[in-house]
Amino acid sequence: MSGLKINFLKSEIFSIRADDITMQKYAEMFNCQIGNFPIKYLGMPVSYAGLKCSDWLFVDDKFI
């Protein structure tokens, strides 16, 4: 084992189509906060809906 551990105090829990009671139960179980969409991961927006063309503009800027 690598010895790596999850820091639940810095983590957020996300769900799609879960009710508030279920989300609160999981957040308390893992001792983390409830997150909201959209989020950014490595600068790229992450959403349960599709990305817009404007969301991809920063990728084009990186390669030019």
The topology string of helices and strands comes to EHEEEH
Strand tally: 4
Q: What fraction of the residues are assigned to beta strands by DSSP?
A: 15-25%
Strands of the biggest beta sheet: in what spatial order? Answer: 1-2
Report the radius of gyration as a whole number of Å: 16 Å
Question: What would you call the quaternary organization?
Answer: single chain
Low-confidence stretches: none
Distance N to C terminus? 42 Å
Shape: flat
Number of helices: 2
- The secondary-structure class comes to alpha+beta
Residues in helix, %: 25-40%
The biggest sheet amounts to: 2 strands, parallel
**Count of all domains:** 1
Instruction: Estimate the mean pLDDT confidence.
Output: 82
Protein name: Reverse transcriptase domain-containing protein
Organism: Aegilops tauschii subsp. strangulata
